[in-house]
Structure prediction request, 61 residues.
Amino acid sequence: MYVCNCNGIREREVRAAIEAGARRPAQIFQACEARPRCARCVCDMREMLDQSQDALRYAAE
Ligand code: FES
Prediction:
């Protein structure tokens, strides 16, 4: 499934970027060697970042 249709960035690529340390959508774009265009995907990226942070917080408890 594509998260970013403009750049063809798939969900698994976003997850890989987050696992590699991306903490902001801009860092995800950078990891995917892409640039934001319409930015409609930024909300989805932020949601995935939040879920990742929640999972880390839960694991640490
Ligand atoms: S959908 Fe990602 S920049 Fe347009």
Q: What stands out?
A: The longest strand covers residues 2-4. Residues 2-60 form a domain with the Arc Repressor Mutant, subunit A fold (CATH 1.10.10). The radius of gyration is 11 Å. Helices lie at 11-19, 25-31, 42-60.
